[in-house]
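tool_call: predict_structure(chain=1)
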Amino acid sequence: MENETKKSPKKKIIMIVVVVLAALYVIFRFMNKETVIEVTPLPTVSVGSPEVGDISVETSLVGTVEPGDVYYVMPKAAGEITNIYVQAGDTVAAGDPICDIDNSKMVDSAKVSLDSAKVALDSATEGEALARTNLDRMQALLNTGDISQQSYESAKSSYDQAAAAVESAKLQMENAQLNYDTQVEYSTVTSPVNGRVESTNMSMNAMASQSSEVCVVSSDESNKLTFSITDRLLSELSTGTPIKVSKQGETYEGSITRIESLPNAQTGLYPVEAEFEGSDSIPKGAKVKVYFDSESSEGAILVNTDSVYYDGGNPYVYTITYNDEAGAGETGKASAEEAGETAVETAGETSQILIGEGNRAATIHKNAVETGISNMEKTEIISGIEEDSIVVNTWTSQLYEGAQVQVLPAEG
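tool_result:
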């Protein structure tokens, strides 16, 4: 018992020493706490310079390939169809007969008029001959003094009237002859051009009228292209505007040949005609794609379309200024030569900003711009940036006015 009592103070002393040493160790570690370094990489962007060049917007429409010229053949006289000479698909030459029309009544009437005109001309001719004989006789008598000048002048006047009657009768006969020939011609309907009969609308013993076609003939000339445009495009296109035509993977070059100034009453669109190389290789009536530049601008400042962003419908473009260049401001960031890690002291703490080797630190600027023509690749910038601006081509959510970024080596 006595021995155990003597050992207790020693145990207490040992325990106290252990506790003190542990406390000193903790205090030492606390006083020598390692500085925590926060690593912050700058967002990386790629940049480029605006281009100066031409830009256009291509519009595509659907067009129809049609014969160069189409003729709707109509009879010039009404009557019964007595003969039919062609059918759809036939090839015809100018003047070839299409059908015969029973025009006998009109022909007979014209023949009567012609015969009457011939009789009138014969009678006038005989009267002129008598008047001429009388005038010659009066001339001889006047020369011998057997008649007065007044009698001679009367004979001369009669002859002039007879000669005028002959001229009038000739004109009447010519008109009668023309009318007769016309009526005979009208009895046979002929093709107006060399070409192909596209369709027919006639049958034997049916009545033909002067207001409906008996057939449709397409000429042998090259096919043409027809399509329609809106009033917005009307001011952008003109005769001679280049076009491209696409059909089954083949592309053909051509140009506009005609633009109607009045819209179609049914569609409200303006009809356009064009010609293109290789048109005869496409069947008539086929649908094709038509391409043309509807808008264009020359010598414009151009940026990538993906570099233009919108805020509430208002376009803007991000540009940068390098921090190591004069006038870049006191940013305190890394220069082009400072690759790797750059330390920045902030409120007693230490952080590191990482900049890749060869990259440059820069400051972001948000520029409101006015845009013009735009296509899938490029957008025209009318105002807001200059030709020597450095435009950000890549997007990151860390872009804003004054943001710090590292820039990949610029390509242009």
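agent: The longest helix spans residues 104-144. Proceeding to next step.
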